[in-house]
Amino acid sequence: MKRLYIMLLLICVYMCATAEPMAPKASLSGHVTDASDKSPLVGVTIYIPELSVGTTTDENGNYAITDLPLKTITLQVSYLGHQTIIKKSGIAKKYDF
């Protein structure tokens, strides 16, 4: 009987240790275009320094970052030859630059 309890305890510990966190997550996406001619910008870096997470825009100027915590974050948008944009953001779903 004691062996059964130990086995059940070990199974519970294993399940808790490998389970996904249940905290709600947010995602961020958007579209980046050139201000002068509205053409999509490829390779723009979208970075969140406090999480060390980032991405770059695709060939259509789109980007997406998933599994973000529900808190205020800082967005850094940078592109070669353009001024870096730094913006504080709350929980947002879409930002276009």
Structural summary, described in words:
By secondary structure, the chain is of the alpha+beta class. It has a single domain, classed as Immunoglobulin-like (Sandwich), CATH 2.60.40.1120. The protein is 18% helix and 35% strand. It contains one helix and six strands, in the order αββββββ. The strands form two sheets. The protein has a four-stranded antiparallel beta sheet with strand order 3-2-5-6, with no helix packed on it. The chain has a two-stranded antiparallel ribbon with strand order 1-4. The mean pLDDT is 82.
Low-confidence parts: none
Tell me the strand order in the biggest sheet. Answer: 3-2-5-6
The number of domains: 1
Measured as a percent range, the helix fraction is: 10-25%
Distance between the termini: 64 Å
List the helices and strands and how they pair.
Layout: H1 2-18, E1 25-31, E2 45-48, E3 53-56, E4 62-69, E5 73-78, E6 85-89
Antiparallel strand pairs: 1-4, 2-3, 2-5, 5-6
Which labels suit this protein?
97 residues; alpha+beta; Immunoglobulin-like; two-stranded antiparallel ribbon; 1 helix; 6 strands; 35% strand
